[in-house]
């Protein structure tokens, strides 16, 4: 086991300090610190927009930096954040021009109606002080008051420790906070007006928190942050490896997760003006690895076949033991998992969509780096996960980028190519939904064939002029140009290559093959699908017709496909607001039948087939 | 609030280090460190037997030290431990001659039969390893195995955190330890042979621990230690004051208590050769202040009238959160209190004596610095506490000492005075039971009158020669000599003065008045008493006839009076061995009616009366 050497990186202006592994990229350290730096090229080192002024022990500039910055800027201390490694203590000044604009993190999580039964109750108590005639102990004094309200009060040591001093300071006018009859806080005076909870969706890339009023059920604020664990690995496998190969790896990743939740909590408090000490209940959904790391659970078993979790059952702990900056004895519940790579996030998706056996056949797909999906058919629920790779997040694509300002998000090809970008900015790259749209349109006009091959310029002669002019060969690679150098202001035109299309084929093939494996296991067919729900950022922004055209999902009528937003987060909210929903989540997790694709021969067959694009205009299934 | 300055004192040979408040007596620091130093005079600075070699920042020798040691010894670094204060870092070497011999701590705690239902179960599990065909999560794998044994397993996060690595190291051959269906430990291989618990009696002065086999119910070892909190105050009032007037006072006293329990646990392990990681259950009884301090509960409310506890209910916490050196997730239960000065120790006394309504009228008295007592009459239990002062422990008496080797423990006066000492050693002082015996005999032969006045030499002429020769006047004070200088080798004869007798009168009057108040409150009389139980060290060593003669307890037939040893500790054992006994303890605590003597007019009246000695030979009540 190695001990990881940590170094301090400070970001100015602001002075945010983080301890990160030596050798980390400045851009990653910024993500850990919650400091937004522009990264149009997605950290490929090609755009130079993430320039910062660096002072400290860092790596020497490489050729791309020298090219992007020039000698003079380098001499003034400028560096490219996504190319520069912090080897020792470093101070980074982020110029205003390099500060990132708002990142597009999907945070809308509409919640269906539910009962308000969070389990948290606040009661204002006017108690009589002890006297020689009434020597009832302090705790029992509160218990007697609450028993008139049918609470059979139980004691929680950390609160009991302070009972005497609080009661005396407050002159026996206090607010008792109970969670399921346990006294979890005691506050001076009447604080019954504020009774809060936070529901978190802890993703591998982004973390979202919803501040909820437990009395009214209303959402008071939403906040999001990048998952600072990215400093230790982009994907789950590398984080598991970091956690298991470093002495303090698990603790570092746990602290990073807790830090993200706390940063979000603090944003929620600023946005809404509430007191975080009045947050008494927290729920968390996330994939199995994320929630294990949050709880400090050994993830060794997730790192090797057959990838079993340490635990599937939901866990409830107090906030203090996790280090969450809410009421010390707030109860934090991590929803149950189904399997090693099917976590409570998918349980949240099911929960928020009334995953009831109402006779319909329903498919829910949550696409991120990992695709998790569930199929309900004839009362049975089948779930699985498939590694899609990062193509849907715009990563690994030559001109790809995350869905932020300037990302091409829709493409239309007729006589000419029409694009739109997020924020109507100059195009600087293409995001996942834009990529799907572009490929769908290119298939329709014959620029790409069923096998995924991009036509060579010589084969494109029959196409309209604007289109065929965009098929170019550069450095021996055929490209289809979506935006020219002159329009985009970029160093290179924004174009798709055969390799980009192959990566999308792999990603979409993997997801669709998994869907087909579920359908087959359930004894159903595509025709049975009454509803296809697309969850998560990608599922929300994608054009349904394009998704069907490229064969990402089965060819159902477009009206059967609905975007359900951050349904995992919505599930966390429901479980926060109502204990009955928590019980339902437990049942859903327990009843789900997990298919392990690694041992499914039908998955391998499907994968071969679904890598191809559907022929011609997709045959939409009609009822 | 003050911050207490702590200094390091190291005891050699052995190198035991303790952090103690600056200005502490070396003798107290030794108590904190668990280092036994001879103290025949009880720390009065008169015998000089506690000489040690001191090196460090200590107070200057006072006149008594100079007298006791002489210039030469002082020059060699010798000091008297009970006179020397450590003001800064100090190293103390304890010569062999000054090491204390075994202290007499009452530790026998006979336990009546009870069911063996500790709630702890160990199960050896031979599990199949996960495979692609069986992806059950690690925790659920254990749960499935145990469900066949009717255990509905619940998860405890600290154990879950390590499940994966333990299972893999142990090749899925593990022992699961549950407490009430919760998985509190997971051990490699088959460790079912050792399943242990510790019952503690946490007294203000001494702490006793009983190591119990939870499978057989057998006691494996007993160990005792001084309560190191003595460094911060001899009595409860001064410890409460220390806890509430210093910033870190509560934490210091809590650490001291935890340290004592851990020292005892380590002694128990050495004595029996067991592994403390196999201790899964701990019970603790003690007075309310002691158990509050152990749990780190604010004791402010115990320091001022009306002296109410923060909590009366029993509390269960895990060992790690308290810092107890047993299995991390061992469950530690502190038994319930009745009132501010009637703690779980008295509940333990009742529990161990089958405090059932069997029609008898029963009185239990546990005498220490504080006397706690309970009366059962016609189905009602009345309890109270009375401050007796330290006379019964030999403290505050001119020649008094704790019950250790050389203490006069019985006295018989006929034609001559006959004494015995503990360990048949040369007499060096008198302990509590010796004092009671002496005064009873002196009353019988007329040396003391009913008011407590000691005859002057001129009034003793009619007594036998050996007796009257012992009535002397020295420094203007009348004394009755129990042992002459020549026999004892002490600096002064061992004698009782009028003041000593007064102190005993106050102590015994206080206890007896409390007893009478209980009897009166119950609507009973002395005649109703079917049984009088004397608990604790004093109650065990005292001669019953003498106790009745001086009027410490009501004049019942001697055969109705029984010594019940460390009955509080026996109660802790019962609660450890059987959950039903724990429930019974809860009921006993809840049903007991507490009488607050401070507001009882009858107590004040009784106190006046019971200060006197009974006239003539006590009239023993016959049925």
Walkthrough of the structure:
- The structure is a homodimer of 623-residue chains.
- Chain A is of the alpha/beta class.
- Chain A folds into 4 domains: 6-98, Beta-grasp domain (Ubiquitin-like (UB roll), Roll); 120-188, Ubiquitin-like (UB roll) (Roll), CATH 3.10.20.880; 196-343, Domain of unknown function (DUF4445) (Nucleotidyltransferase, domain 5, 2-Layer Sandwich); 344-623, no CATH class.
- Helix content of chain A is 30%, strand content 25%.
- Chain A has 18 helices and 27 strands.
- In chain A, the strands form 6 sheets. In chain A, strands 1, 2, 3, 4, 5 and 6 form a 6-stranded mixed beta sheet that branches. A 6-stranded mixed beta sheet of chain A has the order 12-11-10-13-15-14, sandwiched between helices. Chain A has a 6-stranded mixed beta sheet with strand order 26-25-16-17-18-27.
- In chain A, helix 5 (236-245) crosses helix 6 (249-272), helix 9 crosses helix 16 (567-577) and helix 16 (567-577) crosses helix 17 (579-591).
- In chain A, 55% of the residues are buried.
- The interface between A and B is large, with 45 and 46 residues.
């Amino acid at each position: 086991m190695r001990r990881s050497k940590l170094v301090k990186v400070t970001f100015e202006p602001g002075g945010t300090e983080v301890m990160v592994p030596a050798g980390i990229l400045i851009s990653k350290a910024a993500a850990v610190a919650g400091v937004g730096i522009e990264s149009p090229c997605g950290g490929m080192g090609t755009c130079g927009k993430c320039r910062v002024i660096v002072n400290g022990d860092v790596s020497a500039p490489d050729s791309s930096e020298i090219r992007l910055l020039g000698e003079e800027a380098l001499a003034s201390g400028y560096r490219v954040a996504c190319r520069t490694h912090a080897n020792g203590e470093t101070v980074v000044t982020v110029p205003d021009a390099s500060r990132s604009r708002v990142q597009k993190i999907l945070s809308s999580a509409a919640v269906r109606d539910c009962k308000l039964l969070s389990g948290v109750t606040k009661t204002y108590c006017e108690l009589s002080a002890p006297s020689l005639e009434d020597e009832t102990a302090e705790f029992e004094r509160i218990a007697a008051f609450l028993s008139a309200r049918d609470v059979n009060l139980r004691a929680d040591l950390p609160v009991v420790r302070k009972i005497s001093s609080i009661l005396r300071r407050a002159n026996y006018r206090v607010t008792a906070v109970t969670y399921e009859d346990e006294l979890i806080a005691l506050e001076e005076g009447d604080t019954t007006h504020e009774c809060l909870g936070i529901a978190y969706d802890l993703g591998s890339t982004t973390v979202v928190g919803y501040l909820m009023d437990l009395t009214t059920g209303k959402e008071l604020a939403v906040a999001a942050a990048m998952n600072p664990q990215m400093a230790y690995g982009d994907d789950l496998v590398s984080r598991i490896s970091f956690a298991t190969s470093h002495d303090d790896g698990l603790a570092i990743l746990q602290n990073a997760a807790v830090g993200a939740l706390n940063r979000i909590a603090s944003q929620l408090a600023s946005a809404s003006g509430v007191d975080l000490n009045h947050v008494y209940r927290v729920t968390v959904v996330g994939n199995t690895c994320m929630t294990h790391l949050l709880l400090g659970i050994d993830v060794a078993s997730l790192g090797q076949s057959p990838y079993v979790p340490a635990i599937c059952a939901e866990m409830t702990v107090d906030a203090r033991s996790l280090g969450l900056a809410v009421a010390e004895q707030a109860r934090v519940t991590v929803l149950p998992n189904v399997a090693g790579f099917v976590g409570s996030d998918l349980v949240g998706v099911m929960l928020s969509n009334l995953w009831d056996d109402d006779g319909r056949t329903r498919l829910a797909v949550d696409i991120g780096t990992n695709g998790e999906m569930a199929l309900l058919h004839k009362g049975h629920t089948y779930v699985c996960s498939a590694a899609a790779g990062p193509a849907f997040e715009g990563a690994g694509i030559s001109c790809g980028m995350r869905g932020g300002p300037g990302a091409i998000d829709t493409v239309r090809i007729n006589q000419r190519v029409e694009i739109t970008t997020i924020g109507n900015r100059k195009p600087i790259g293409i995001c996942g939904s834009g990529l799907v749209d572009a490929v769908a349109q290119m298939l329709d006009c014959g620029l790409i064939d069923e096998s995924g091959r991009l036509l060579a310029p010589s084969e494109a002669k029959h196409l309209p002029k604007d289109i065929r002019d965009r098929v170019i060969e550069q450095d021996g690679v055929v490209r289809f140009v979506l935006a020219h150098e002159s329009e985009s202001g970029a160093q290179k035109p924004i174009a798709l290559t055969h390799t980009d299309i192959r990566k999308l084929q792999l990603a979409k093939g993997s997801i669709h093959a998994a869907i087909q494996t579920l359908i087959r296991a359930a004894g159903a067919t595509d025709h049975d699908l009454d509803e296809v729900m697309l969850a998560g950022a990608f599922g929300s922004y994608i054009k349904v017709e394009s998704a069907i055209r490229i064969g990402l999902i089965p060819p159902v009528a477009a009206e059967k496909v609905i975007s359900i937003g951050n349904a995992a987060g919505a599930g966390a909210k429901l479980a926060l607001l109502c204990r009955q929903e928590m019980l339902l989540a437990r049942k859903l997790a327990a009843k789900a039948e997990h298919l392990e694709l690694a041992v499914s021969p039908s998955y391998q067959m499907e994968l071969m087939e679904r890598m191809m694009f559907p022929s011609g205009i997709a045959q939409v299934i009609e009822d």
